[in-house]
Amino acid sequence: MPESTARRTIIDPMTDSTFFQFSQFIQTELGIKMPPTKKVMLQARLHKRLWKLGLDSFDAYYEYVFSPDGREHELPQMINVVTTNKTDFFREPNHFDFLVEHVLPKMIKRHGLEKRFTLWCAGSSSGEEPYSLAMVLHNYSEQVHGFKFFILATDISTKVLDKAKLGIYDEESAEPIPVIFRQKYLLRSKERDKGLVRVSPEIRSFVRFRRLNLIKSDFGLRETVDIIFCRNVIIYFNRETQEHVINKLYHHLSPGGYLFTGHSETLNGHSVPLKAVAHTVYQKEF
Ligand SMILES: C[S@@+](CC[C@H](N)C(=O)[O-])C[C@H]1O[C@@H](n2cnc3c(N)ncnc32)[C@H](O)[C@@H]1O
């Protein structure tokens, strides 16, 4: 369906039964909780898509999005507006300190410097988190010669992945990056008044972005990883889905590997065989 340039049509409020159909899909296929209290928010987010397509009802949108053509062209757009992608460079900075001061020295002591350490940023949004990691790890590799790493960054939203691959950000959003890293790892736009910066090609080369739905049974990852950052993602899932996802992440961790979750996402009370080694940092047994 081509996107509409026509003037905005009046759209009737979403009925409870249509909301139920959308919420069922969002909870089952994306894992994201969608209780009736979220109806106003969901309507507001989907409105943009109805306007773009020139549709005048949520029923018509539902019918289109789950048609064969809609599944191919519109469903990714719907997922883009339904997901919450808030992120920052160096968000929850003590995780980065803990990584450098405790996790990496322990891992190097055990494995030596022969191997390349692999990290997975699951729910990486627009790239600020994996690029923060790449800056920290590159800087570390200058102090610990021979340290090698690679970062896989995944998200379900194609919109944030496209932004992440470009690696271009507002100067303002780069402020949390330590000054020394800004000088080393950011390029300023030639047109100064645009106020944009770009992550250096070297830092970008350490990160590979890929679309991946954490709810799907097969992640398609061939090898286990040493460290997983899955922060501020499972907070949007219900308890059962959280446990399901954490157990799957556990299976993708190498023995002795670490999982970092968001500061409000403790695994207390969840039945997962991971040991807490710091607040919201967990380790798999050897
Ligand atoms: C709030 S952002 C967190 C970004 C980053 N990890 C951080 O802490 O700043 C949550 C991200 O999880 C992604 N997400 C939500 N459900 C997902 C799913 N089922 N599979 C993969 N990613 C998902 C969203 O698209 C969003 O970009």
From TrEMBL:
Enzyme class: transferase
Any matching Pfam family: CheR
E.C. number: 2.1.1.80
TM stretches of this protein: none
GO biological process, one term: methylation
Keywords noted in UniProt: Methyltransferase, S-adenosyl-L-methionine, Transferase
InterPro entries: Bact_Chemotaxis_MeTrfase (IPR050903), Chemotaxis_MeTrfase_CheR (IPR026024), CheR_C (IPR022642), CheR_MeTrfase (IPR000780), CheR_N (IPR022641), CheR_N_sf (IPR036804), SAM-dependent_MTases_sf (IPR029063)
SUPFAM superfamilies on file: Chemotaxis receptor methyltransferase CheR, N-terminal domain, S-adenosyl-L-methionine-dependent methyltransferases
Catalytic reaction list: L-glutamyl-[protein] + S-adenosyl-L-methionine = [protein]-L-glutamate 5-O-methyl ester + S-adenosyl-L-homocysteine
Stretches assigned to the CheR-type methyltransferase domain: 13-286
CDD domains: AdoMet_MTases (cd02440)
Coiled-coil blocks: none
GO molecular function annotation: protein-glutamate O-methyltransferase activity
PANTHER family linked: CHEMOTAXIS PROTEIN METHYLTRANSFERASE
Annotated protein name in UniProt: protein-glutamate O-methyltransferase
Biological source species: candidate division KSB3 bacterium
